[in-house]
Structure formats: structure tokens, C-alpha cells
Design brief:
Length: about 550
């Protein structure tokens, strides 16, 4: 089959889904621009800062994209390209995009508070504690997984390391230019993007080389600072500028794939069981992860994005549209894997990892664009740099979200212990500590499947809280939310159960314990929220 035809067909379907299903979902939630958003009403210039839709889309998209929509589809390709493509499209449209929009909107209608606060209001304190504990554990996994991805990329591509360090300095200057010196967004963007590409070239000239463990220590220090700094100073401007890199990669990659037009050499379907992952159900769904649906997106939407939404109608392009763009990235990543033969794919995946497979495939596609006369190694380095840049944005956002979750959890501590643990520095340190233990555990390959399962289960729990909120406000059972919620809950409970067994068999007791804790928290929370929902339903019928 033609790779170009598959890509164009997928894009058309995603655009139609945004225009029609996205508008339908927005109507179901009652978008109203006359309602003042928390970004304006609670503005504090630290966390609550209204942002123009393009800036917020850049920040949100950069935060949710990371490396997961690249790693997931490429790893899941062992089942064949048809199952992965179908789940990317169906999951991305009817599960992921709706989930992201719902999480953002519900948070905006609750003062930009996290899903934990929404659960506290509509389910109760016990449910809120369980959700915040689950969130905090899941974010520790995110921080560990993405720290290792970034550190490994920096070691493999030293130019990406030096460029990324320079990007951080540029972001601070850009944030000051916009928020303190009140320079025009258009002018600042042109200058900022130009400097961004200059720093890519400087990274090639002045690469930074050191060991993976040193990079992990540096990343721990960086995410600590990023978590406590005002959002306008670092996260928002860095994500906005970095989004142009990913937009460039998506556009150039799309054009390159059309020009290259690879034939899909990989089997459409291989088997229901893959040696590296296990059975297609449930492992396909938790391995593809963020390209279809991701609970991490709900944390981003309700943790940082909701505090910056300028008006309610911006939620559709920012959240619904942002997820569909990520799905398109996942499809591009899938193509870089399935244009290889089975033998080459297996060898490259073992030697280079998913990011290496993606970088090599994208470099081949980009080199086919007429007039783009660049060395293949340079193109591979450029793609690797972009991937690491977005893994880094997910990493610092995850740390900030972990800090939020811990601070909200501290509300339930005894009064004497509450104040110190609500401190942003203490909460950040408490979030980074378990992640650091996982980082240096040396169990990278085992961390990723647990991350995927926790991530998908978190999405199901977020949808559970949205369902309770929706019923509380509209008195209806929203099947378009309930069906994805139940599906992902069952899938990920099966996956976590499998991981407990496999980690115990391989004597990975830390990850087996973590999988068990996540599963128990999820089951308790589902029971608590389900009971509340059933009680509300019976009360509603009685009335």
C-alpha cells in the first residue's frame, strides 16, 4: 500500500473529525464565551495568566506531545500496521480528543483546578485523595521515563543537548520580552524563531558531551527550577517556541512522506501475540498510549492549560485540535516503522530504539524533498533534536503538575504538617524523589509499559470524574464519555495485572509493587466514584 495515500486519507479524516465531531462535543458541554475564564478572574501572573489561542496551543501541544506518540506507535507496530492505524484514528478522535477537551472544559468551569479538586467536589474527599495519590504516582513514572529518554538522546546526539540548553535561555528572554517589556507577539515570535534555528546550527558547532548519569542529575535540577518558576517566564514561552519546531517537523515530514511515498513493506497484521509485548489485547492500547488517548493530557489540560485559557471557545482548537495533531504525529511515526521490512524493523528497533527508527525514517523522507540538499546524518540529528526538545517540555510540565498534585494532597495532611508540604519547593522535591529512584533503577525497558498502563488508566479515571460532573450539571448519562471510560478502564486493568505477573516473574519487585499500587488505587477510586454516580442516578429517578 502507498504510504502517501494512507497519510492523506488520515489527514482528511482528522480534519473532518475536528470540524464536525469537535463542534458536536463542544455543543454538548455548552461553550459560552460570555463566561469569564479563571485566567482572567484569578489572574496572578504566576499560574493564572491569559494567553492568546496560538500561544496556548503551542504550550499545550508541546507539553502533551513529548516522545510518547513516537515511541508508542513504533513499538506497537510489531502487531502490524492496520491495528495500530485503526487505534490511532478511532482512539484519537472518539477517545483522546474528546477526553482532552472534556478535562480542559471541566477544569475551566471549576476555577482552573485539577481533576482531583473536581472529584473532591462531586465525589468526596476520599475519592479526591485516591485520585491525587494515583496522579502523583503516575507523574513520577512520567518524569522517570522522559528523563531517561532525554538523557539517552543527549548522549547519542550531543548537538541536541547544547541546543536544548540554549533554548532554555532563549525562552526566558522571550518570556521577559512579552510579559515585562510588552513587546509585540508577532515581532517577538519572528525574532525568537529565527534565534531558535540559529541555536540549532550552534548546537552542531558546539556539541555538549557527558555521561547519561550526569545528564540525569542536570535534568533533575532543571525540572526543579522549572516547577517553581512563574509559568510565563519559562514553561509558556519555551513550549510556544518549541512548538514551531514540531510544526516544522510535521509539515516537512508530511511533505517528505508525500514526495518519498514509501510502500508499506511491513505486514498489515502479524499475530495476536508478539514476543516483545505480549497479547494484542490489552498491550496494543497501552503501548500506543499518547497517540490515541493519554491521561497525562488531562493533567496538563486541568493543571496548566485551564489556568491560561483566554475564552471558552479556545478549548476546541487548543485541546481537541491539539490531540488530533498529536494523532497525526503518531501516524507519521508509524509510517517510519512500517516502510521497513520486518527484519530491518526488528534490527533497527533493537539497535537504535524507537526514536532512532523515527529519526532515520524521517530523514529519508525529508531528503526526498526537492531542493532540500542536506546530509542524511545532519537530518537524523535535527529530527533527534526536535524529539528531545518535546520530551523535555513534557518532562518539565509533568514536574509542575506533580507539584500541584502533592500540594493539593497536602490539604488532607494534619494541620501542623500541612503548611511545609504545601510549599512549592518542598512539594517539587517530594515529586522528584520517587522519580529519581526509578531513573537510577536501571529498569528502563520495564518502566515504559507501566507508564503506558498508568497513563491510560489515568485517562479512564479522568473520564470518570467528567462523567460525574456532567451528570451533576446536566442530569444525563453521557454515553460518548462513558463508553471510552469503561473501555480504557478494562483494558488497563488487564494490562497492569499482566505487568504485576511479568515483573514478579523477572524479580522486578519495585515495578511490580508500583503496578500493584496503581491498580489498587484505580479500583478503589472507581468503586467510590461509581457508587456516587449510581446514587445520583437513583436519586434523579426518584425525583
Amino acid at each position: 500500500m502507498s504510504g502517501a495515500l494512507l497519510l492523506v486519507s488520515s489527514l482528511v479524516l482528522l480534519v473532518l473529525a475536528y470540524a464536525f465531531y469537535g463542534r458536536w462535543v463542544a455543543g454538548k458541554f455548552g461553550i459560552d464565551d460570555s463566561i469569564v475564564t479563571p485566567a482572567h478572574r484569578l489572574k496572578d501572573d504566576v499560574d493564572y495568566v491569559p494567553a492568546p489561542a496560538p500561544v496556548l496551543l503551542g504550550h499545550h501541544f508541546a507539553s502533551i506531545a513529548g516522545a510518547a506518540p513516537i515511541i508508542g506507535p513504533i513499538s506497537a507496530a510489531v502487531f502490524g500496521w492496520i491495528p495500530v492505524l485503526l487505534w490511532l484514528l478511532l482512539g484519537g478522535i472518539f477517545f483522546g480528543a474528546m477526553h482532552d477537551f472534556a478535562a480542559l472544559f471541566v477544569s475551566v468551569r471549576n476555577d482552573g483546578r485539577s481533576m482531583g479538586e473536581v472529584i473532591k467536589k462531586h465525589v468526596g474527599s476520599k475519592g479526591s485523595i485516591l485520585f491525587l495519590l494515583f496522579t502523583w504516582f503516575a507523574l513520577a513514572l512520567v518524569i522517570a521515563a522522559f528523563s531517561i529518554i532525554v538523557a539517552k538522546t543527549f548522549v547519542t546526539v550531543p548537538a541536541a543537548a547544547s541546543s536544548s540548553v540554549m533554548f532554555i535561555g532563549l525562552a526566558i528572554v522571550f518570556g521577559l520580552a512579552l510579559n515585562r517589556f510588552r513587546l509585540s507577539l508577532a515581532v517577538s515570535t519572528v525574532v525568537g524563531v529565527a534565534l531558535l534555528f540559529l541555536m540549532i546550527w550552534l548546537g552542531q558547532v558546539f556539541p555538549l558531551q557527558t555521561s547519561e548519569s550526569i545528564w540525569l542529575y542536570i535534568l533533575i535540577l532543571y525540572v526543579y527550577v522549572a516547577s517553581v518558576a512563574p509559568v510565563w517566564l519559562l514553561l509558556q514561552p519555551r513550549d510556544y517556541l518549541n512548538s514551531f519546531l514540531l510544526y516544522l517537523l510535521l509539515i516537512a515530514g508530511f511533505i517528505g512522506m508525500l514526495s518519498y511515498n514509501p510502500e508499506l513493506k511491513f505486514p498489515a497484521f502479524t499475530a495476536f501475540k508478539a514476543d516483545s509485548l505480549g497479547y494484542l489485547f490489552p498491550m496494543l492500547f497501552v503501548t500506543v498510549a499518547c497517540g490515541a488517548i493519554s491521561g497525562f493530557h488531562a493533567l496538563v489540560a486541568s493543571g496548566t492549560t485551564a489556568k491560561q485559557l483566554n475564552r471558552e471557545s479556545d478549548a476546541q482548537p487548543v485541546a481537541f485540535g491539539g490531540m488530533l495533531i498529536e494523532t497525526l504525529l503518531g501516524i507519521l511515526a508509524l509510517l517510519t516503522a512500517v516502510m521497513l521490512t520486518s527484519d530491518v524493523y526488528t534490527a533497527d528497533l533493537a539497535a537504535k530504539g524507537p526514536v532512532g527508527v523515527f529519526a532515520a525514517g524521517m530523514a529519508s523522507a525529508l531528503s526526498s524533498i526537492p531542493g532540500l540538499n542536506m546530509n542524511q546524518d545532519v537530518l537524523v540529528g535535527l529530527v533527534s533534536l526536535i524529539v528531545s526538545a518535546f520530551a523535555l517540555t513534557s518532562l518539565d510540565t509533568a514536574t509542575r503538575l506533580g507539584r500541584f498534585a502533592f500540594q493539593e494532597l497536602a490539604e488532607f495532611f494534619p494541620e501542623r504538617a500541612r503548611k511545609p508540604f504545601k510549599n512549592s519547593h518542598v512539594a517539587t522535591a517530594m515529586t522528584i524523589l520517587p522519580a529519581a529512584v526509578l531513573m537510577f533503577s536501571g529498569q528502563w525497558k520495564a518502566i515504559w509499559p507501566v507508564f503506558g498502563s498508568a497513563n491510560q488508566l489515568l485517562a479512564s479515571i479522568a473520564l470518570l470524574s467528567v462523567t460525574v460532573w456532567y451528570f451533576h450539571n446536566f442530569g444525563k448519562k453521557p454515553l460518548f464519555i462513558i463508553i471510552p471510560m469503561v473501555t480504557m478502564f478494562l483494558v488497563t486493568c488487564f494490562a497492569l495485572t499482566n505487568m504485576i505477573e511479568s515483573n514478579l516473574a523477572s524479580q522486578s519487585y519495585l515495578l511490580a509493587s508500583l503496578s500493584g499500587i496503581l491498580l489498587l488505587l484505580a479500583l478503589f477510586l472507581a468503586w467510590e466514584a461509581g457508587s456516587i454516580l449510581l446514587n445520583k442516578t437513583s436519586q434523579h429517578h426518584e425525583l
